[in-house]
Amino acid sequence: MSDTATAAGLDPATLSDLLRVAGAPGFDRLHEQIRRTGGCAAPIRLSGGTKLLDPATRTVLHAYTTDAEPGGVLRIACGNRRASRCPACAWTYAGDTYHLIRAGLVGDPAKGTPETIRDHPRVFATLTAPSFGPVHNRPGTRPCRCGIRHPEDAEELGTPLDPSTYDYAGAVLWNNHASDLWRYFTIYLRREIAARAGITQKAAREQSRVSFGKVAEYQKRGAVHFHAVIRFDGPDGLDSPPPVWATLDMLTDSIRAAAARVRVVVPATPEHGFEHDWVFQWGEQIDVQPIGAFGNGEELTEQAVASYVAKYATKAAETTGTVDHPVGNKEALILLAVPDHPRRLMEACMDLDRAYPERRLRAWAHMLGFRGHFSTKSRSYSTTLGALRQVRADYRAAQQRASLGLPNPDDHPEATLLVVAHWAYAGNGHTPGESWLAANIRRDIQLNRETAREALLDLEGDVT
After folding, report:
1. I need a surface site. Which of 70, 71, 116, 314 has the fewest CB within 10 A?
2. Residue 170 neighbours by CB under 8 Å, 6+ apart
3. Within this chain, do residues 72 and 96 fall inside the same structural domain, yes or no?
4. Domain ranges, residue 107
């Protein structure tokens, strides 16, 4: 068994379980279930059933139960956005984020955003953290401060030149208050716009709106920064044009001025050894770029922005070398082999937890203190993730009705159908053999998607 497992690239336990799974009754149905989840790495297992009834005739039109399913359960996708947890569900989340951001840039009537949205001034802004101490980097063509020209994949990039002087406490507290900094930024932004327009804030709100969609990203040094699409709209939101005074230059200047005004003060706690207040603000590296429409050779196109935001919507602090789950104590960091720099940041969270218990720094140590949402948007930016998921659910429901020969409710609005369902949680995850099977199904699906995408690009190239 050991030689066979080695030849297959599997450990003996996984190979043994895979053989058991492949030889068990209902393997084809298990394969179909896993494929329907997209190769989800940690599916939710449910037991129970559902009935579709015609209340007028008391006829059972369709009945389903998990009794005949493999293991007596139905597997559904976990829906986790983290690529480190479930690449399959993260791919879906990234796709939804892409369409959400793109709909607010190019317009999509099917998603409730008019195509005239392209005429609204909009920028791609990046707000970063300040310095907490010099780190190894790649400053253009010059060598790092350490005297070395680091390659792009150097492990030391983002780590402090001198860990003994690096402000680890300030770094994690800044992450912890980053969402507050963003909230104050949006308040000051509207004030700066009104001041530049020469009108009151109330008048500015009556004549225009500022909409945004943003995503958080971790720099190599472990500091959070935000990428945001910020757009001028008219008084009725995305359906109305902005006033004539709402220009791209005004938006850019207002963003820079608002970011410079933001201050968040965290009071000192002398009883815990912190004698001075912490004053947090955005870093000096504030980047604001106009987003080009129609892709006519602009450096920053709508497609590029939507792809960039979607890319980081599925990543978190684990990109810095930390873990993607809560850690209870410092000893666990050693056992988990967390690299030195993220380990020090996590230890700082645990040390600060007693000084600022309301900030729950220990609970968010695996996120290096950050406790905000990674992907957020203003109410009127575009569609919602919930709406996109509902479209997908409705499509699958229509497919199932068609396969079962059931009536379409849209074709018979007068008809009333009653759904009676009972579901119970039966666990989550895969056995080792099922995990191997799911990973291969996910890779096959990904390969098919990439092949179809390349074929489409080739076709578009031939047409043009």
Report:
1. 116
2. 132, 278, 280
3. no
4. 87-132+167-322+371-383
